[in-house]
Design brief:
single chain; alpha/beta; Rossmann fold; seven-stranded parallel beta sheet; 10 helices; 7 strands; about 45% helix; about 15% strand; globular; binds coenzyme A
Length: about 280
């Protein structure tokens, strides 16, 4: 679908790039010629992803860091750029989430998710953004949000609040930093099966119900997210900034619309009911 050297000469940092969707994006970027930097808290998946990229002929380096900590992020970028050269794209993918009734959240629980998602995104974006401004080079940021960033969602309050903040950050900085040639976009994925997300968010047979909410009739795939993330980093998207692209098989439109529940029934039955409501021809 893309030219095999589309991203040659580019260098991207993917936070949380050792596992799940971060890993899928890092692998795809590397396949198309980009040099990859990844960070995360656990070293084993980071090492494994870099080894897999190298085995496929790509270039990748990792550093273990916690995006919640601004000083650690600064040090990580210095260490990574010493190996990769200047980074010109950032994917804020690192996230934290779990299902919990909001009245049961401890201060530490709220803090943990908001610090990873909202502060982590700010820390990485500012650390690279100020370098791009100083170096007078263009840069691009992709923030991975979620379709409940604008609707909110029960039982994931810290994540919903933090992702809404990330979306506001995306749009605010798209305007503020456009003058420097820095673009910021967001991708809002619906459910895409990965170990990290599904082990935390799909407990107790919730998968079937989640699937039923998706008009397209299936979950998303990591490669679909990765290909969209390629487009947003590519020269084809030079004038795309401040945008959020939803990738969810129409899930949120269905759950947010008044009569969308009809799509859960066989279409022929729905049409029969609707037809029975039509006034009879005279
Ligand atoms: N329900 C309620 N509270 C929870 C929880 C759960 N399932 N899991 C953790 N917490 C609380 C802890 O009790 C703690 O609060 P306290 O100190 O007030 O008791 C706080 O959250 C932090 O927990 P800790 O174990 O120290 O986690 P951490 O800060 O090292 O990790 C998490 C952050 C909790 C978000 C963890 O789930 C994580 O590492 N997630 C990363 C991957 C991920 O979530 N991916 C999601 C993709 S959708």
């Amino acid at each position: 679908m893309y030219q095999s050297d589309l991203l040659a000469g580019r260098t991207f940092l993917v936070t949380g790039g050792g596992t799940g969707l971060g890993r899928a994006m890092a692998m795809r970027y590397a396949e198309l010629g980009a040099t990859i930097a990844i960070c995360g808290r656990r070293t084993a998946p980071l090492e494994a992803t870099c080894a897999d990229i190298a085995a496929a002929g790509g270039k990748a380096h990792w550093v273990s860091t916690d995006v919640r900590d601004m000083e650690a992020v600064e040090a990580a970028i210095v260490e990574l750029e010493a190996k990769t050269g200047p980074i010109d794209g950032l994917v804020n993918n690192a996230a934290g989430n779990f299902l919990c009734a909001s009245e049961d959240l401890s201060p530490g629980a709220f803090d943990s998710v908001v610090k990873i998602v909202l502060y982590g995104t700010f820390n990485c974006t500012q650390a690279l953004g100020k370098r791009w401004i100083e170096r007078d080079t263009q840069g691009a940021v992709i923030n991975i949000v979620t379709t409940y960033a604008w609707m909110g969602s029960a039982f994931v309050l810290p994540s919903a609040a933090a992702k809404a903040g990330v979306l506001a950050m995306t749009r605010s900085l798209a305007v503020e930093w456009a003058t420097y040639g820095i673009r910021l976009n967001a991708i809002a994925p619906g459910p895409i099966p990965t170990e990290g997300a599904f082990s935390r968010l799909m407990a107790g047979g919730m998968e079937k119900e989640a699937l039923a909410r998706i008009p397209a009739g299936r979950f998303g795939r990591p490669d679909e997210l990765a290909d969209l993330a390629v487009y947003l980093m590519s020269p084809a998207a030079q004038w795309v900034t401040g945008e959020v692209v939803t990738l969810d098989g129409a899930e949120w439109l269905k759950s947010g619309q008044e009569f969308s529940g009809f799509t859960s029934h066989p279409r022929a039955n729905v049409k029969a009911v609707l037809n029975s409501m039509r006034p009879k021809k005279k």
